[in-house]
């Protein structure tokens, strides 16, 4: 769903990816969750021009 929303509705893409991250972390798939967090950072940076949230997403990906 996130790919479909990425260009036209970046806020919805972030929501979809956040839900995916929740499911991945509860099942112990932390690497995949970090990758989705990086995708969120890219959306914040390139589509929404929100550098602060992009940095926060990258920090969460590093955790």
UniProtKB/TrEMBL annotation:
<dbReference type="InterPro" id="IPR011990">
    <property type="entry name" value="TPR-like_helical_dom_sf"/>
</dbReference>
<protein>
    <submittedName>
        <fullName>Sec17 protein</fullName>
    </submittedName>
</protein>
<dbReference type="Pfam" id="PF14938">
    <property type="entry name" value="SNAP"/>
</dbReference>
């Amino acid at each position: 769903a996130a790919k479909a929303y990425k260009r036209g509705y970046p806020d919805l893409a972030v929501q979809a990816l956040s839900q995916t991250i929740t499911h991945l972390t509860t099942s112990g798939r932390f690497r995949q969750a970090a990758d989705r967090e990086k995708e969120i950072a890219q959306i914040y940076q390139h589509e929404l021009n929100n550098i602060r949230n992009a940095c926060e997403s990258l920090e969460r990906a590093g955790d």
